[in-house]
Model the fold of this input.
Amino acid sequence: MSRITIPEESELLELNLGPQHPSTHGVFRMIATLDGETIVKLKPVLGYMHRNHEKIAEEMSYIASFPYTDRLDYLCSMSNNLGLAIAIEQLAGLEASERGEYIRVIMAELTRLVNHTAVTGFLLNDMGAFGTPLLYAFREREKILDLFEAASGSRMMCNYIRPGGVRADLPEGWLDQAKAIVKAFPKFLDEFEGLLSENEIIRQRTLNVGVLPQELAINASITGPMLRATGVDYDIRKVDNYSIYDRFKYRVPMGQVGDVYDRYYVRILEMRESVSILQQALDDINDASPYISPKGKAIAKAPRTFKPPKGETYGRIESPKGELGYHLVSDGSNKPYKYHVRAPSFINLTILEDMCLGHKVADAIVILGSVDIVLGEVDR
Amino acid sequence: MTGFGVLRGMGITLRQFIGTYRFGKWFLKLIGLDEGSGITTVAYPEVKQKHAENFRYFPFLVYDESPEDMRCVACKICEQECPPQCIHITMEKDEKGAPTKKFGRTYPAQFDIDVSICMSCRICVDVCPFDAIEMDNDYEVADYGRGPEMNFNRDKLLKSAEYFGKIKPTEHAEVEARLEPKRAKAKAAAAAAAAKAAEAAKPAEDKPADEDPSDAGSDKGDAS
Done:
């Protein structure tokens, strides 16, 4: 890159970060070339956790891919399920039931809270604040995971959302429990912000670090909080109005500079907006309609008989990390002919080098933390 | 003011720390501060956290009265649908290759689930037309090997419907409500067949057995 000029007499050092390192968020490897302590070149190495998800999905029924999508981005299995469910619904022309849509939105927004609390905690961990903010975040996250367990049976590998609705109805008293947790959440956010947002050390470590120019972000098709931190108003919930997001009032928080602090703060504000969506959805949810449409129920009961018509589709949602898309091609049989996942983590990772150039090694760790990757999704 | 943010953060951690003590909680309440959530972890092997009723972990086979009276008819739907392909079923057959029957239905001679491969996704439960397989919630299954120790066979998987009712009362009630009309129908059919057999007294052996496959067929019809 021409932005960095290397003095002639200096000698470069190649430093290998990862793949087994707690700050690389999984088995991710960065080969950094250093001049002194400044990064002049950074090469990401991926593929250590490749599990062949896309090819496996082409060998099985549409429904059988759902448990595997849980394992893409294992922090937000609910929104991964939702993305595939929406893609299948588009492919087969199905409609979800009213109550099913509400439950899905509630689950997707709870997932956003789970993801953003976790990623903020891990970002602070990368900065050197070991434990404290992370565990405060995890304490809240655990309450939401308990809700997931009560509804779906599993804390993280939920496998709950199906085309046409959700797999099972909410257990008794779940909504009240959820309301209580959502009501208490802003208090936690206030405390969390009191701990972090004004903290001078954090501001010094993050302000103007890893600036992502708006133009580059758009050109590299960055999505999610990363893009919005650069000041682009692009939220697929608003753009596509998929599911029933047009019924709720919420704002899309945006940053100005596009540095690590903006990414952190956009996530905090997004959590506040998610809380507002959750409150509206929990109040509006209709008890009368079924949790899954009859067609969806039949598909879930007999996955091999489900043969969507020939054609292709691209279903996308705003997952907590960005645009999560599923490209499905059907040849009329009960297995997808082609199945591709557009993973937000993977595409957001492509501009890592541009953000890291000219910064120190310690900053590279923080920048990587702010990208919010999960290697299960990057490598698939 | 520089440094104030750090001090504020330290104040918050201090309050959380005090809140982990019973006396501290009382003190925080006294001075009008939020007492926080205190200690939220448990000392695992001694204390076990209560899990939700829906909590699922590995499937098991359900039998009604005795382990011989299993609901599974070895139809192999779950074997086909299982995403990681961890179920292996063989139907009990006689020398000629015709399926043998017990209680008027076919049954598996071998029903293995490799729990080291199983990912507890619950798809086998969703697709089973006979409600013969359900999710357990016993998560302490660690063993010293990953071969035969992790390959649960039929006898290890069979658990009573009573046990299922104990761990998941809501789901059990739903399943019973779904099965009750079928049982009544099967009973009536069996009685009718028996009466018919007694009347004709000629093809007595086949009739009671015939009634079940037709019942199974109608089940599948309902499902799809």
Notes: The mean pLDDT of chain A is 87.
